[in-house]
Amino acid sequence: MSTAPVDTPAQQGRSPRFWWVLGSVLVAASVALVVWFGLSGTKGAVTATDVAFTREPREVTMVFDVDRPVGTVVTCHVKALDSDYATVGSTDVEIPASQERSTRESVVVRTTTQAVTATVDGCRPL
To answer: Which InterPro entries does this chain map to (predicted)?
Structure first.
């Protein structure tokens, strides 16, 4: 008479509970890593937000907010666009260092033809 070998827990492999715990730990570690990279990528970043603009036949006055690290000199490129999204005027404006993180700026952009909109093309620290 022959008996079939009985599997012991060590021979059966890992339990489903082990795989659930391992998967949960790996997901939590991945989420923490993504959040860490996301936050470190924005530290010290310079951003600009368009607020308003007014149009004249040959110029646009652009108002925008700049967020930057305290004490940082920033230059922003502002451009005016026509109805075909062609650039009809642009200027670079230097924003001096300040103790405030956020500042509101206003700049006049002279244009070759009437512009329909204006936008901040980008800002960078000097």
So the answer is: DUF4307 (IPR025443)
What is the Cα–Cα distance from 126 to 117, expressed in whole angstroms?
27
Averaged pLDDT score across all residues of the chain: 87
Rounded to a whole number of angstroms, the distance between the first and last alpha carbons of the chain is 88
CB 115 within 8 A of CB 82: yes
In order of 10, 24, 26, 30, the CA distances from 33 in angstroms are 34, 14, 11, 5
pLDDT given at position 44: 74
Q: Under DSSP, is residue 20 helix (H, G, I), strand (E, B) or coil?
A: helix
Are 125 and 73 contacting, i.e. CB atoms less than 8 angstroms apart?
yes
Does residue 4 carry a pLDDT above 90? no
pLDDT of 74-94, one tens digit each? Answer: 999 999 999 999 999 999 999
